[in-house]
Write a structure and sequence with these properties.
By secondary structure, the protein is of the alpha/beta class. The chain folds into 2 domains: 82 residues, Ubiquitin-like (UB roll), CATH 3.10.20; 83 residues, Translation initiation factor 3 (IF-3), C-terminal domain (Translation Initiation Factor IF3), CATH 3.30.110. Helix content is 37%, strand content 30%. The relative contact order is 0.10.
Length: 176
């Protein structure tokens, strides 16, 4: 079993309320203040009065540490922490150009790319060729280079323009 699944199992094995089978526990109340070592009956009574759950948060401690809290909220926060801890991959946004793209359309695509880069997305710029346009790939390459130059204040070229069949691709990332 890998470490991630072991952690999940340990989390699932948290004992709550009557599942806690010890005589005494170190109690932390709903406000987060340490009450001290109390009998389990007293801890359960305090949890019921607060209309919350008694959760064993440190079972290996002597005596075990129990907290009075809302178990549903606790589980939700733990899941959010686990998701937040995962490394976030940069998402990729794709823009498509053609060798015959007019100036206004080119400017609009530049604005879109700038907005994506400022939000920390990678931008994949595709230059699509059709038919006879394949004989003039240099026009497409120049257009992609002009695109990169116009964005050089916010972006750097991660992968330069490269031809793959009927398309030429270039990837831009935000400057550090």
């Amino acid at each position: 079993m890998d470490k991630g699944s072991q952690r999940g199992v340990a989390e699932e094995n948290l004992r709550i309320n009557e599942q806690i089978r010890v005589r005494e526990v170190r109690l932390v109340n709903a406000e987060g203040e340490t009450v001290g070592v109390v009998p389990i009956d007293e801890a359960l009574r305090q949890a019921r009065e607060a209309e919350l759950d008694l959760v064993e948060v440190a079972p290996n401690a002597v005596p075990p540490v129990c907290k009075i809290l809302d178990y549903g909220k606790f589980k939700y926060r733990e899941q959010k922490k686990k998701k937040g801890a995962a490394p976030r991959r940069k998402q990729l946004k794709e823009l498509r150009l053609r060798p015959g793209t007019e100036e206004h359309d080119f400017e609009v695509k530049l604005q879109h790319a700038r907005r994506f880069l400022e939000k920390d997305f990678k931008v994949l710029v595709n230059m699509l060729f059709r038919g006879r346009q394949m004989a003039h790939t240099n026009i497409g390459r120049e257009l992609l280079q002009r695109f990169a130059q116009a964005l050089e204040d916010v972006a750097k070229v991660e992968s330069p323009p490269r031809q793959e069949g009927y398309r030429m691709q270039m990837t831009l990332v935000r400057k550090a």
